[in-house]
Amino acid sequence: MKLYDNRRAPNPRRVRWFLAEKGAAAEAGVEIVPIDFFAGDHKTPEYVARAGIAQAPALTLDDGTTITESLAICRYLESLYPEPNMFGRDAKEIAVIEMWTRRAEMMAAIPLMLAVRHGHPALAALETQVPAVADNNLQGAERSMAFFDRRLGASEWLAGDRITIADGVLFIGMDFARMVKFAPAPEHKNIARWLTAMRARPSATAGT
Ligand SMILES: N[C@@H](CCC(=O)N[C@@H](CS)C(=O)NCC(=O)O)C(=O)O
């Protein structure tokens, strides 16, 4: 399997983070192929024909099938490397983890990615930047932090009593937004506790 990857971008990082949580066998099972966005590697006819979209990450299987969308790739890898479980073991767990993953993505990760894309000068080469889009999304994500702080006051991890893909999505979204100086408010002590735990894991620096 080949993982078309970009070291600085948040969606590819989800997959590297996930592989690191799965452990050495999972990491060894995937060959990393670096993609340079600024050189346009992902826009070549060959890349787009293979992936179907000019984005990373993309996972090409040995039979030639290519999967894009970071969470779809993680789900595929979960089937190959089931332990430790990250997507749920039974109907209730699967639904609760999906719920928190969607909340993490819609309420934090996507707004924070847009805040960086539209707000950081380094991304001007990839995006027609609109400062109001950056501001609006940053403010929306900041408002969502109170919600996640309440949850992390009631639960050790986002979706329950063990780390799951939902934690990875929230963590990587928040970490990426440090590029635009995003930081949780000091009163959000539960997020601070959780961030310390996330940063202490080997997966926090996987491929960074
Ligand atoms: N929904 C997709 C989003 C993938 C995506 O947006 N990738 C970005 C990097 S984080 C990309 O390929 N950007 C290339 C560009 O902007 O030209 C996923 O989760 O994989």
Descriptive notes:
A hairpin with a 5-residue loop joins strand 3 (58-60) and strand 4 (66-68). The mean pLDDT is 97. Helix content is 54%, strand content 7%. With 208 residues, the chain is of the alpha+beta class. It has helices spanning 10-22, 24-28, 45-51, 70-80, 91-119, 131-154, 165-176, 189-200; strands spanning 2-5, 31-34, 58-60, 66-68. Strands 2-1-3-4 form a 4-stranded mixed sheet, with helices on one face. The longest helix is centred in the middle third of the chain and has 29 residues, at 91-119. The chain is globular, with a radius of gyration of 17 Å. It has 2 domains: 2-80, Glutaredoxin, CATH 3.40.30; 91-205, Glutathione S-transferase Yfyf (Class Pi), Chain A, domain 2, CATH 1.20.1050.10. It is built from 8 helices and 4 strands; from the N terminus they run E-H-H-E-H-E-E-H-H-H-H-H. Bound molecules: glutathione. Residues 9-11, 37, 42, 55-57, 68-70, 126 line the site of glutathione.
